[in-house]
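Anyone opening a protein record will find just a pair of labelled lines. A complete record is shown below as an example:
=====
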Amino acid sequence: MLHTRILIADTAEQAGKLAADEFEAVIAKKPAAVIGLATGSTPLPLYRELIAREKAGKIDFSKVRSANLDEYKGLAPDHEQSYRKFMQDNLLSHISIKPENTIVPLGLAEDIEKMCQEYEEKIESWGGVDCQLLGIGHDGHIGFNEPEDHFPAMTHEVKLTEMTINANKRFFDSIDDVPRAAITMGIGTIMAAKKIVMIVTGADKKEILKKTFWGPVDPQVPASILQFHPDVTLICDKAAYPFD
């Protein structure tokens, strides 16, 4: 907790606005900033706010570069449940960012290891991530870095746990359709970001949030590594904050 700044919001919508303030400040300071993006329901209020702010002339995404945390293995970019499609539908198609300046791991890559290496090299060629957005899973995963006996360093393929598969089955016709593997930025890739913004909302995240920032650093709680990052802003709503 030494370096973590905590902002507590009344609602998920307000949490999105507070997160938008962080990204707006980064882009104002560096118009060609590299931002790390995440999928899921948690960042949607943030993405709505970023779209509104560009329309209002407060943010200019025309020089910004973006790199996504993860993607399902085996899904085409235009698949209804791919993370590339999620990003296009919920943010990228609504702002002035150039398509060639947005990268998402390729779920259909024939050589996953080579694609992961190229993904790392692309981020490095951009000068690294300036501001990385994160959510958190109920088991403490960030990106698709699941609990295990070590902290994976680089972008890699990961086998999804039953907890993650069950959490994601609501997006598919049946649990059999949920991919069993994904490609994710590694913990080392995430920790290399200059600044990290984590959004956590909902009472169901209270327990894991406490373990992450107030418990021991343990690869069984992957997000706990963030205690070692020098610039983390945690934005949570009152329901998720683990202390009264």
The longest helix spans residues 12-29. The chain has one domain: 4-237.
